[in-house]
Design goal:
Elements: H1 8-20, H2 24-36, H3 38-44, E1 56-59, H4 69-86, E2 91-96, H5 102-115, E3 119-122, H6 129-138, E4 143-147, E5 156-163, H7 173-202, H8 206-218, H9 221-224, E6 233-236, H10 241-252, E7 262-265, H11 272-282, E8 288-289, H12 315-323, E9 330-334, E10 341-346, E11 352-354, H13 357-371, E12 378-383, H14 389-396, E13 400-404, H15 408-411, H16 414-417, E14 422-428, E15 432-435, H17 444-460, H18 465-476, E16 478-487, H19 493-505, E17 510-511, E18 514-521, E19 534-538, E20 543-548, E21 554-563, H20 569-592
Parallel strand pairs: 2-3, 2-4, 3-6, 7-8, 7-9, 12-13, 12-14
Antiparallel strand pairs: 1-5, 4-5, 9-10, 10-11, 14-15, 16-21, 17-18, 18-19, 19-20, 20-21
Helix pairs in contact: 1-2, 1-7, 4-5, 4-7, 6-10, 10-11, 10-17, 11-17, 13-14, 13-18
Amino acid sequence: MSETTIGSDVLIAARRWIAVDPDSATRARLETMLANEPDTVERLFTGRIAFGTAGLRAALGPGPTRMNRVVVAQTTAGLARWLQQNLGFGNVVVGFDARHFSEVFARDAAAELASSGFAAELLMGPTPTPVLAHAVLERNAIAGIMITASHNPPADNGYKLYLADGIQLVAPADAEIAAAISQVATEHAAVASAALDRLEIDGVEGDERERRLEPLRSSTVIELLGGELDSGSVTQLDYEPQRRHVEAAVDALLTDHRDVRVLYTAMHGVGGAHLIECFAAAGFLPPEVVPEQFEPDPEFPTTPFPNPEEPGALDLAYAQAGVADPPPDIIIANDPDADRLAVAVPDEHGVWSRLTGDQVGFLFLDHVFRHRSDATAPLVASSIVSSRFVNRIAEARGARSVRTLTGFKWVARPIVEQPDAEYLMGYEEALGYCIGDRVRDKDGITAALVIAEIAAGLKDAGKGLRDRLDELAAEFGLYATAQVTVSFAGMSEHEQGELKHRAATMTPDSVGGVAVADVEHLIQGRRLPPTAGVVIDLSDGSRVVVRPSGTEPKMKAYLEVVEDTSGGVPEARGRASERLERLADEVRELLTGSA
């Protein structure tokens, strides 16, 4: 195969890309693809990574549909234009995790910002995402950029954007920034095209061609497009934002219980050293760590999908806990950028298992309400796919419960939209927790400190986390949740489209043998901004929420049943488990059309 089998528009776009790409490895990879993989080149140069409310996230590689230095530079140049037009100039904080190319992308982003007149502040070294989110507020920045792909596989990276309020952006800013990025990319392509035309006219080849292309690769996009080197600068912050984040975390602690043995895994991410520092500052004993997963490693060698929700992700921690003497009281885990927290505890037989994200949310809600009774106009927030227990306990504790769309760009938004309320916490079932308003995003570090404190307080009373969950169930009823996931793997685009359409439009009469009481198609925007998905309320109090995943190629259904516990919590758990199993089978059939 050769370049002649590639469409002319794609071939031109690829040649322009090679002309401006500052990374010799991706240039060489694309040259090889042009000669041997024309179909791959067609895919790489058809479209562009969509810039949305989650920023960018894709596999590393050449072309506009992958994460690379050109995409990062163009994205940041487009962002700079939007900031100038809407917020003016100021400082922008940039952070990065330990994934492949994260530091390179962060430095490129900082250079683009400086070239357009912003003061770019680069955090020192690989940093947890919540530290960057906190630094945006701490530094009074007009924006913050975090280079991370969170818990995605090793081949991926991403670009997450925060605005001056310390929260990830939402519409319409996402569309406006996307339009600015597209404009920059078009102009950048024109610069490359003019340079290539001149080389063609002059008949320049070989080393001389590369020498004359080098200025296009070493200069920033802004400079190429005629921008001026204004008063902007790139600096590494001369203070440790980690210390500020420790202070925020310690402030979130509400009691002085500290006697707890913790086993911790960083999942090969950047949370390890930071969490240890936070525990020490808060007065806890140093957690034991899973050594194989403690140091940052972009290859994630012990887990191909470094998400503590995934089956097997905590196996090393369970094995270490099983032979420890004395054993830990709890296991905690962060994902690679430390914005999520998983918690595992042993049963009466010493068998370890992870609590669900909802169960951990219950414990946080209970703890916050019991220790913040002095709050004025208390408010808690949760996503629509999280348990409705939050509404039940908030009502009982005299607080307001706000339900939002999924994602902390929504869960944290009441902090700024309802300034007269005191935001106690927000959570969503996907292991994301925001305690207080000092970090306006998921924060797996602060959450780790608070769950350790909860465990220490219960231990002092001769109890464990599961005991407190049983007490809450006895008081409020048993709220049990589960998930059904249908992967798009192996499906054609047509099959995926059919599944999405089926999920978005379903109006069943019954589910799991139970009559449907109400169906809310979320695209209609009845209570929340329009989004893909459906909420099905059943006549027995059960609920099913179906939506496509925002970060993975799959469809998810979130199931919840509520059981009366007057006859005993263990019996209620047994009934709930049976109901969830029947409900899961029925929902799976509704989504796939097969039993």
